[in-house]
Design brief:
Layout: E1 3-11, H1 16-32, E2 36-44, E3 56-57, H2 58-66, H3 70-86, E4 98-99, H4 103-114, H5 118-131, H6 139-148, H7 153-162, H8 166-178, E5 186-189, E6 193-196, H9 201-213
Parallel strand pairs: 1-2
Antiparallel strand pairs: 1-5, 3-4, 5-6
């Protein structure tokens, strides 16, 4: 009988290591196959909750937030690009020059979860930002992506323009902050086990198999 795995994937749309972590998790779950009965939920986390609507230049942002030099940023970009390639994700670094506010994207993801399309929308958002260089805070981008994954575009427009699910997103963010989640990705298995960071697929697979082997 398949072992139930409830996975809460706490992440931000603008976090490259979250895209890598999701790719690694997917590869690990493919390797595990039918041995696991997976229930996957994407939970909100904003790396830059106070980011203004116009966003900020990435180089400027990284220098202000982390004190990194252009050389260090270039090294980090190459590492991210290489790790993405390992899990089949394309980071087109030349197309992405700004970082944006992601609150509306999280509201749309919350609604997508109610409609059974959350994973598809999450993957579409990562691709839109990191591969295509699109603005994940722009309503026209979010509405287009909703339609691309089979969601109702008129309802998506309503959600974005009304502020719906804002309270639910804030509540979820506060819940995970209260429980010690201060960096992402944070992958929580069965509400008890934490796997932190954009780990390689083999690390995810080993951790998941160990959790599955433990008595319920």
């Amino acid at each position: 009988m398949a072992t139930p795995l409830k996975i809460d994937f706490v992440s931000d749309v603008s976090c490259p290591w979250c895209a890598i972590g999701l790719g690694s998790l997917n590869k690990a779950l493919e390797a595990i196959g039918d041995a696991a009965d997976v229930e996957l939920h994407f939970q909100p986390f904003e790396l830059n909750a106070n980011m203004p609507p116009e966003g900020q230049d990435i180089g400027e942002h990284l220098t202000e937030k982390y004190g990194s030099t252009p050389e260090q940023q270039e090294q980090a970009r190459e590492m991210i690009r290489a790790r993405g390639a390992e899990v089949g994700f394309d980071f087109a670094m030349g197309k992405r020059s700004r970082i944006y506010n992601t609150f509306d994207a999280h509201r749309l993801l919350h609604w997508a979860g109610l409609e059974g399309k959350q994973t598809a929308l999450k993957q579409a958002l990562f691709k839109a930002y990191f591969t295509q260089g699109l603005d994940p805070s722009a309503h026209e981008v979010l509405i287009y992506l909703a339609g691309e994954v089979g969601l109702d575009k008129e309802r998506a427009t309503q959600v974005l323009h009304s502020g719906e699910y804002g309270a639910e997103v804030r509540e979820a963010e506060q819940f995970f902050h209260r429980h010690g989640i201060n960096s992402v990705p944070a992958v929580i298995i069965n509400e008890r086990h934490l796997i932190s960071g954009g780990q390689p697929a083999a690390v995810f697979e080993q951790a998941l198999r160990e959790i599955m082997a433990k008595p319920a």
